[in-house]
TrEMBL record:
Species assigned in the record: Staphylococcus aureus
Sequence ranges assigned to domain FAD-dependent urate hydroxylase HpyO/Asp monooxygenase CreE-like FAD/NAD(P)-binding in this UniProt record: 4-111
Pfam families reported in the protein's UniProt record: NAD_binding_9
Protein name: Pyridine nucleotide-disulfide oxidoreductase family protein
Top-level taxon in the UniProt lineage: Bacteria
Length: 114
């Protein structure tokens, strides 16, 4: 079966993550569509301003439904960004988390994705 995911922001990345859990995932042929600039991060989380903050506590945001602190753990391990008040991080930081998540994720399943 062929599946298209249009838009690889939060929803698109989350849909792909859930498809991988499906028992017939290895029978799917998946096409991902988004522009190169926003692939994996979506428009709301693009690199546009460090003053536009996420409206949720950073420790409670994640693409992983089984681990609500995954984004926070990623932030603490990465070395590209360091903010004095990380309780509410800039949106673009979550965009970088999503891009790294998608990159890591698609390497594992690349033979099923176009």
């Amino acid at each position: 079966m062929r599946v298209a995911i249009i838009g690889m922001g939060t929803a698109g990345v989350s849909v792909l993550r859930e498809l991988v859990k499906h028992p017939k995932f290895n029978q799917l042929d998946i096409d991902l569509y988004d522009d190169k600039v926003n692939m994996g991060q979506g428009v709301p989380f693009q690199n546009d301003s460090s003053e536009l903050l996420i409206n949720m506590p950073s420790k409670k945001m994640s693409l992983n439904l089984d681990d609500e602190t995954e984004f926070w753990k990623w932030y603490k391990q990465q070395t590209d960004f360091n903010f004095d008040e990380p309780a509410y991080l800039p949106r673009f930081v979550f965009g970088h988390y999503m891009k790294s998540y998608l990159s890591m994720f698609t390497k594992k399943i690349s033979k099923y994705i176009n």
